[in-house]
Amino acid sequence: MRYGLLLLVLALPLQADNLIDQQLPDFYQQLIPQTTYPLSWQPEQFSDIQHWRTQGRAALREALLWPDEPVDFAAELLKTEERNGYSAQLWSVQLTKQSRVQLLLLQPDAAKPAPAVLLLHDHGARFDIGKEKLIKPLAADSRGASAEQWVNKHFSGNYVGDALAKQGYLVIAADTLGWSDRGPVEFDAQQALAGNMFMLGRSLAGMAAYEDLRLVQYLNQLPEVDNSRLAVLGFSMGAFRAWQLAALTDDIKAGVAVAWLNSYRHLLTPGNNILKGQSAFYMLHPGLAAKLDLPDIAALAAPKAMLFINGAKDKLMPQAGVEQAYQQLAKVWQAHGAADKLTTTLYPHYGHEFNAEQQQQVFSWLATQLAVPPRD
User: Fold this and answer.
1) What is the DSSP string of 14-82?
2) pTM above the 0.90 mark?
3) What's the N-to-C CA distance of the chain in angstroms?
4) Mean pLDDT of the chain
5) What local confidence, expressed as pLDDT, does residue 11 receive?
6) Angle formed by the axes of helices 49-63 and 237-248, to 10°?
7) What ranges do the domains of the chain cover?
8) Is 25 a residue whose pLDDT tops 70?
9) CATH code assigned to 58-369
10) How far apart are CA 188 and CA 191, in angstroms?
11) Which member of 146, 156, 253, 322 has the greatest number of CB atoms within 10 A?
12) Radius of gyration over every alpha carbon of the chain, rounded to an integer in angstroms
């Protein structure tokens, strides 16, 4: 009931922003549990940490509202081009009964099988590019200029995927529904799509999460991949998807989430994006917020290796909420006896970005977790 009321508020038209800002913050706060969420990790409430993880993961999977629908990937290679030390390939893959998608795959020239990284792109209100935000488009792709603008703005001019391929990783990235080859689904159209899915007993957030699970399954069956060394990495909305995916499946051995982690208490404030509908529906699972806070969901990834990076000047992610989330994560990893597998970093002078310094931290961390030797 509480979550239904929240969704009703989220569905208000945009011209009601002033009403939301002026009258409803207290209402939001009243819906949040005063102490802990019912499925938050508490030693006195659960018999052991594994029991808690099993129960929490089941609640998360159920909230996706998306059944398992295994289909043949029927992968088809569309284009390929050679790059320095690796090849870039464009593939068409059947992820679900409803979704045939194009993905970019970077195959290193080094010995196989290789460790692999699944890259999950951000939202950014930029819909003409998706996978191209993280992997350099093929030479003939007209989206090259847009991709350059994006990496210059958020990634210090670097294509993260290409940097990883040069280090010996097999890398893939695909478009979420709404971006690049699967778009555009812009602004209020996102909210309309989400509303239609709710009427069908499905959810937009659940579709995105299930497709991410299918991408992991696709990676796992590639003979070129060492599936004992499979990682996920995402920025912004992609970071949300990264820790969510690590929580959903143990096929992921290590995860990196840059610039998306907080608590509901700190996000449910006037002006925050999560209250405006539209893009928020890619990250809202019906009913789940009545059981688990955001860091509780991320903590379901424990005890695997996870790296969380945030900036203290990120206007989308209030610092107090980041710090609260980090504290909750630490409790769970400690309960697993795996405190050394969790790394949380809050850069004091950075905002909503994944810059060169942060990238170097990630590359070093991934190499350690996946036992990748340094390259000249």
Assistant:
1) GGGHHHHHHHSHHHHHHHS-SS--TTS--TTTSS-HHHHHHHHHHHHHHHT-----------EEEEEEE
2) yes
3) 58
4) 91
5) 35
6) 120
7) 58-369
8) no
9) 3.40.50.1820
10) 5
11) 322
12) 20
